[in-house]
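Please fill in the sequence for the structure shown.

STRUCTURE ENCODING:
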C-alpha cells in the first residue's frame, strides 16, 4: 500500500501555489553585453527526474482518457487534473478562461481564512444580516432574514453556508466582511494564484449577465429577478449573455483552479488549522452530489465546490465542479471540470464529470506502490 509523503487530508491537504513562472526575456543577449562580462555563461537546466515506465504509461493513459471524455462531450469544456503529491498535471483545454460562477466562492472563503490567520478576522464575532444584504438565486438565508427582520450569525457560519449550501447571501455578506472584491483579488495575487479572476459580487455580476441593473427589490421574492429578466428585450439579453461568455468577469482556467486546490491541500496557502477547516467544509458540500462526487469509488473522499450559471435560449453559461479527491491510500488529486457553455442535458454533464473522477481513480490504481 502506498505511503503518502503528505500529512493526512484532514490534517493538511492542499496544493502549492498555482502561479505561473515569471516570464523570462525572450531576446538573445547582445554581443556587447556578452563581451562585457566573459564570466557570464548560460546555466544548463537540470534534467527532470526520470519517470518510471509504469508511471509514464499511466499518465499517458489518463491524458488519453480525459481527452476522449471531453471530445465525446463536445461544447466548451475544460478539464484539469493535478497530482497533489508531485504536481504532475494533465487535462483538456485546461488553460481556457471559463466562467466560474459559484466556484468563485472558494476565493471568498480563502480570503476570510487568510484574514483569520493574520488575526484580522474573528470567526466567532457577531455579524448582522439585514434585508438590504439579501442577494438572488439560491439563498436559504433569505427566509430567515425576512421572517425575523435580521439574522445574527458569524463568519464561521457564513463560510459553512457559502461552501456547503452555495448560499449567495452568505457569500456576499462574507465578501464585504473581508473588504470586498478588491481585497479578494489582492489575496489571490499575494498567493500567486494567477489566471483566476474575481468578479464584482453576485448582484452586480448576475444582473450584468442578464442585461439588467440591480435593484434591491429583486432579492425579496423568489421570482423577482426572473420577472425583471424576462421583461428585458431579447436582443439585449442575447448581447449581455454573449459578452459574458466571451470575456467572463469571473473567468478562470481549470488548471489554475486545480493547482490552487493542490496548493491548498499541501498546506501552502493557509495555516494548518485553517487548511483543515477549509477542506473539512468542502467535504460537507451538499450541492452537485451527482457531479464529481458520484464517480468516486467506495472509500474515496471528495471535497468540492460546484458552480452553475444562468440559462439563455437553451444555453447555460457555466456548469462546473472542482475539488480534491483522495484515495483510501491517502493520495490526493485536484480536479477542475468547467463547462463554459453547453446545451447538453444535465444528466450528460453529470455523467461526463463522473467519468473524469473514475478515470483518475483508475490512474491511481495503475501507479506502482511506493
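FILLED IN BY: designer on duty
SEQUENCE:
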Amino acid at each position: 500500500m502506498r505511503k503518502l509523503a503528505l500529512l493526512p487530508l484532514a490534517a493538511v491537504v492542499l496544493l502549492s501555489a498555482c502561479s505561473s513562472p515569471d516570464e523570462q526575456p525572450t531576446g538573445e543577449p547582445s554581443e556587447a553585453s556578452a563581451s562585457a562580462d566573459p564570466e557570464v555563461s548560460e546555466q544548463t537546466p537540470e534534467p527532470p527526474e526520470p519517470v518510471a515506465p509504469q508511471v509514464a504509461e499511466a499518465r499517458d493513459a489518463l491524458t488519453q482518457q480525459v481527452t476522449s471524455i471531453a471530445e465525446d462531450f463536445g461544447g466548451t469544456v475544460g478539464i484539469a487534473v493535478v497530482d497533489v503529491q508531485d504536481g504532475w498535471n494533465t487535462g483538456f483545454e485546461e488553460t481556457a478562461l471559463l466562467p466560474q460562477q459559484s466556484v468563485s466562492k472558494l476565493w471568498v472563503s480563502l480570503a476570510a481564512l487568510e484574514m483569520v490567520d493574520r488575526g484580522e478576522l474573528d470567526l466567532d464575532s457577531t455579524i448582522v444580516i439585514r434585508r438590504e444584504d439579501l442577494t438572488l438565486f439560491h439563498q436559504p438565508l433569505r427566509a430567515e432574514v425576512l421572517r425575523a427582520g435580521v439574522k445574527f450569525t458569524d463568519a464561521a457560519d457564513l463560510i459553512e453556508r457559502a461552501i456547503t449550501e452555495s448560499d449567495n447571501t452568505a457569500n456576499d455578506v462574507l465578501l464585504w466582511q473581508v473588504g470586498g472584491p478588491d481585497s479578494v483579488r489582492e489575496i489571490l495575487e499575494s498567493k500567486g494564484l494567477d489566471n483566476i479572476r474575481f468578479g464584482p459580487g453576485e448582484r452586480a455580476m448576475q444582473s450584468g449577465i442578464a442585461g439588467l441593473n440591480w435593484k434591491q427589490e429583486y432579492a425579496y421574492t423568489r421570482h423577482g429577478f426572473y420577472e425583471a429578466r424576462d421583461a428585458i428585450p431579447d436582443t439585449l439579453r442575447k448581447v449581455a449573455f454573449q459578452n459574458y461568455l466571451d470575456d467572463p468577469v469571473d473567468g478562470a482556467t481549470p488548471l489554475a483552479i486545480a493547482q490552487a486546490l493542490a496548493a491548498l491541500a499541501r498546506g501552502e496557502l493557509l495555516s494548518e488549522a485553517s487548511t483543515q477547516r477549509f477542506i473539512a467544509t468542502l467535504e460537507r458540500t451538499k450541492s452537485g452530489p451527482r457531479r464529481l462526487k458520484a464517480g468516486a469509488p467506495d472509500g474515496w473522499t471528495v471535497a468540492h465546490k460546484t458552480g452553475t450559471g444562468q440559462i439563455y435560449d437553451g444555453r447555460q453559461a457555466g456548469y462546473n465542479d472542482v475539488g480534491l479527491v483522495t484515495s483510501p491510500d491517502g493520495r490526493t488529486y485536484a480536479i477542475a471540470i468547467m463547462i463554459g457553455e453547453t446545451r447538453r442535458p444535465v444528466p450528460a454533464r453529470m455523467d461526463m464529470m463522473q467519468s473524469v473522477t473514475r478515470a483518475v481513480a483508475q490512474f491511481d490504481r495503475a501507479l506502482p506502490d511506493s
